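Bug report

Summary: structure tokens for DinB family protein differ between web form and batch submission.
Environment: batch mode, default settings.
Steps: 1) Submit the sequence below via batch. 2) Compare with the web form result.

Sequence submitted:
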Amino acid sequence: MTTPFAVQVGDERTQLTAFLEQYRELLPGVLDGLTEEQARRRLVPSATTLLGLVKHVAFVETVWFGLAVTGATRAELGLPETVDESFALTDDDTVASVRRHYAQVCEHSRAAVAALGLDDTVTGRGYPITVRWLLLQVMRELAHHSGHADILREQVLAAG
């Protein structure tokens, strides 16, 4: 696992990237050792499941690194129109397929900003944001959902 503590003395981009990469590893990691049923188990009133959370963060990365950087539409990126829809699972969604999709999305995200500096501005969402802000925003979202995932995984494992 990537650890941000290994780059305490790196430049700002290196440090931001290390934290972001740690969350990119943590989220799909909540599915480790779970059955398909456990990954899909709904334990809260919302449609949130562990598998749905990983599917949702693929949506989040695509919105911010796809839409915001490139200006492509949700339709062009194959994204649902609402955030709630991004949690919805289909019969084709499996632990392996959702993890694979998220890994591919992360590769696209990395590539989208690889040639950009932290102070470069992107406008694909209709307003200017710096790459620094973009990295921090995605990191905030991933950290937020990592907390949800930790609690849900604890509940799933306790239920057996």
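Above is the batch result. After comparison, the two runs are identical; trailing whitespace caused the diff. The mean pLDDT is 92. The two ends are 26 Å apart (CA to CA).
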